Amino acid sequence: MLEGATALGATNNTTGAGSSSHRWSSILGSGVIILAALAVYHNSFAVPCLFDDVPSVIDNPKIRHLWPIWDALSPSAASLVGGRPIVNLSFAINYALGGTGVWGYHALNLAIHILAGLTLYGITRRTLLSPVLRERFSSCALRLALAVAVLWTVHPLQTEAVTYISERCESLMGLFYLLTLYCFIRGTGSHGSSWWFALSVVACLLGMASKEVMVTAPVIVLLYDRTFVSGSFRETWTRHRPLYLGLAGTWLLLGYLMVGLHYRGAGYGLGITWWAYALVECRAVVHYLWLAIWPHPLVFDYGDFVAIGRIGEVALCAMMLAVLIAGVLVELKRRPAIGLVGIWFFVILAPTSSVVPVTGQPMAEHRMYLPLAAVVTLGVMGINTLLGRRSGAVFLALAVGLGWLTVRRNEDYRTELSIWNDTLAKCPNSVRAHYHLGDMLLHTGKVQEAIDHYQRALQIGPDTPEGQVNLGVALDRMGRAQEAIGHYEEALRIRPDYAKAHYNLGQALWQAGQLQAAIGHYKQALRMDPDYTEAHVNLGIALSQVGSNRDGLAHFMEALRLSPGSPEVHCNLGQALFQAGKVTEAVEHLQQALRIKPDYVEAHFNLGLALEKLGRTPEAIEQFEQALKLQPDFAPARNALARLRPGQ
Q1: Given its phi and psi angles, is residue 67 left (phi above 0), alpha (psi -120 to 50 degrees) or beta?
Q2: Distance, C-alpha 308 to centroid of its chain
Q3: What is the model's pLDDT at position 618?
Q4: Which end of the chain lies in a sparser environment, N or C, as judged by fewer CB atoms within 10 Å?
Q5: How far apart are CA 605 and CA 595, in angstroms?
Q6: Taking a C-beta distance cutoff of 8 angstroms, is the pair 462, 456 a contact?
Q7: pLDDT at 21
């Protein structure tokens, strides 16, 4: 196992790490990590957008353009990427390069994971070659560091953070977390220490803008410094005061970005007490530890509610954690290197797995992305202590076995249907699995089967606003509008600021002839989410119908700003401009709608009307004929042709 005494003052802690005798071996090790990652994630590039990927990527207007860059750096607080501008910027870069095609998003996710694995490799190698550990590990530092990095990289517990596009939040934060520590380590053994320390602060700043868990990074750097570099907290402050002031300064940015965190279901006053959440997390952390050792079964989504469980089970988990934490604190004093590895595990999990409720997702496997490194490190060191050089065969076997499980796990993600069926098989009471399966059945026209899943979801979790809205949509599809309205209203009783419920209630009220009431709910939806493109479009149409053409046109223009590539937005804007008498401008937008979607029947018809208004009758006839060719029973186009070609 790792054995350490206190570090020796100002002794260079990376002697030998960069010597020529190690350089080529290090490069070869890096190549092994890259190849291992590519091998186990080769089947992840076609995984479709899932769950939170839709609001984060597909329906995220803030990634539609890179300039002005402020838009990409200011995502909606109500979204998963709210308060995480660097993640949103990375999605914007993906969108600029390939639109919503998933291949590019998965490629960047994997690149981030590979870089994190390489950084972990560098941290582990340089730590084993530090003065505290060099005497014992200098001959095997490269081999052990490579084992840690490869096993961490290919472990199937990482699939959620890598294969699931939205969890780039976790992996990107993880990369910056590791870089913060790596740059500090390089700075302590380099003549250009000020530059490395500056890079450490920059990495920490970028991490704070990626995910809130980064809050613990300065603490880990401080503990690492005390353990491997300076030898005491007094000495760490004396030697590296400017660095720690810079790292602490990054908390100011995090504090600013955390305004509105309650929108993402985190914090107090959201329906769960701190002590109940702490009891749930006792079970969750023990479960994470088990999955790190035996990664089965892996579950995509544990739901937004995890029962506290039986008193005996919770007490046992709490006792296990208390013993582990006590042991870590003892080791931190007796053998600081081992203690620091344990602290790494508990400190990084603390923001999400302690007493601050994360009500939307109290248990999630992606939270083990960085803490897993501690478990893997202790495992590798333990095997090395028992087997010595013979441990290489064990590490190889573990890498192959874990890699095979990762490939298998990626197969579960191959379609939305497969991942939600897998989730439901492992968690039969998963509310979200039921209503997402309901969504897929609804989209394929199996409305009654969808309703069955929605109703089952609401039996399990009656206070789930998403389930209420989804059931309302299905009932509306069945022509049961009044029942649908009841479910939308129930969703708003549970969550009054739920923009989607306001929007859908507005739709239902409009269909019921209550146009003014519908306008009110569209406006409410936009108060909750000013970037809700569909709400802008429908409010624009509704305002036009009640005679507020100017206000309606303003909402169409805002919808176009948010979704410039939407054919529906161009078509509706064209129709509004036509009604406002701006016929030439209307033609331009209707033509753009058809360039994006050539088989858009309504756009052909509206373009025909605009061309007729301009006196371009032959072109108008051509558009009406095209609309009928696409939809032979489209009566408005047939009537228009009869008007333009009487007697035919």
Answers
A1: beta
A2: 26
A3: 92
A4: C
A5: 15
A6: no
A7: 61
Query: Structure tokens of 13?
Result: 């802690």
CB neighbours (10 Å) of residue 260?
12
Domain that holds residue 288: 24-412
* Residue-level pLDDT at 244: 97
Residue 46 pLDDT: 96
pLDDT given at position 264: 62
Instruction: Report the b/e string of 179-197 with b at 16+ CB within 10 A.
Output: bbbbbbbbbbbbeeeeebb
Residue 9: predicted pLDDT? 35
Angle formed at CA 135 by CA 129 and CA 137, multiple of 5 degrees: 55
The CA distance from 185 to 229, in Å, is 9
Buried b (16+ CB within 10 A) or exposed e, 288-327: bbebbeebeebbbbbbbbbeeeeeeebeebbeebeebeee
Q: How confident is the model at residue 461, as a pLDDT?
A: 83
The answer to whether position 290 is within a domain reads yes
Predicted pLDDT of residue 587:
95
End-to-end CA distance of the chain: 92
Output the six-digit token pair for 566. Answer: 């939407």
Q: Of 150, 33, 23, 168, which Cα lies nearest the Cα of 92?
A: 168
> Does a structural domain hold residue 496?
no
334 in Cβ contact with 277 (< 8 Å): no
Helix spans in 59-101 (H): 69-72, 85-98
Would residue 361 count as lying in a domain?
A: yes
Q: What distance in Å separates the CA atoms of residue 558 and residue 521, rounded to the nearest whole number?
A: 18
Residue 49 DSSP symbol: P
User: What gap in Å lies between CA 367 and CA 17, rounded to an integer?
Assistant: 31
154 and 117 Cβ atoms separated by less than 8 Å: no
Neighbours of 412 (CB within 10 A): 18
Q: Are 60 and 81 a contacting pair, CB within 8 Å?
A: yes
Cα dihedral across residues 575, 581, 585, 587: positive or negative: positive
Q: Is residue 44 part of a domain?
A: yes
Tokens encoding 202: 């920059």
User: For each successive 10 residues of the chain (648 residues), what is the average pLDDT?
Assistant: 39 48 84 98 96 89 89 84 94 95 97 98 96 92 97 98 97 98 92 90 98 97 96 94 97 89 60 81 94 96 70 89 95 92 96 79 94 98 94 97 98 95 91 89 89 91 87 91 94 93 94 93 94 91 88 91 88 87 93 93 94 93 93 91 77
